[in-house]
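lol ok so funny story. i was supposed to be doing the assay writeup but got distracted and ended up predicting the structure for this chain instead. priorities right. anyway since i did it might as well share w the group, maybe its usefull for someone
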Amino acid sequence: MIPDDGRNRHVWRNAIKEGMKAAWPVCLGYIAIGLAFGVIARKAGFRPLEIGLMSLLVYAGSSQFIAAAMLGAGAGFLPIVLTTFSVNLRHILMSSSLSIHLRHLEARRLAIFAYGVTDESFAVNMTRFRQGCWGWRQALAVNHVANLTWVASTTAGGIGGQFIPSGAFGLDYALIAMFVCLLVFQLRGRIHVLVAILAGLLAVIIAVALPGNYYILAASFIAASAGLGLRKMKGFRSEKQGPS
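and the output, tada:
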């Protein structure tokens, strides 16, 4: 009979292996994007240690790009905080969706899990939660394997930033390419395609028409609401839907 501590180690070992297997496409994207951020941040005046600490403490790719650009342009503390806060409001939507699958997780583990939630880890974990073969340990492994990759890649980009041009190797396109791939894996029916198209169109329209960085949150809210309405319609109700 396996002792409880031995069984627990075995469970964790398997969960980490499964998490690493699920996270490797995200990690590949993070290497490219992290190097790009490190290069940009270095050219904005950050030192490699500061870049690594920012990635560890903030851990939000798009917000880090924005903050580095604003700091490089001489923006003040309050505008940077408000801008990055508004951009990161989308985490409320992601956390609400994940909470359904983590409702029995105790507070200290939930806090550790919440730290590692990003757009990419959310997409990977939600896909597997919906398939019904995923647990919080595997999801936690995805979050923190990706986190370690991000911190290491951004720091490496900062160290080599003085030698790498900011637009080299197509690094500027890496973030867009990864989001496109993650979106494709989330499409499970006509309604998802329509919501994705609507969200993209609304984001562009709102970004052009209104100032600020609220277009992502606004477009997501409107498109998700429209998707909920479409789901109740007869033509879409018959589609096979996973847990939401």
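The chain has two domains: 7-178, 187-244. The radius of gyration is 19 Å.
back to the writeup now i swear
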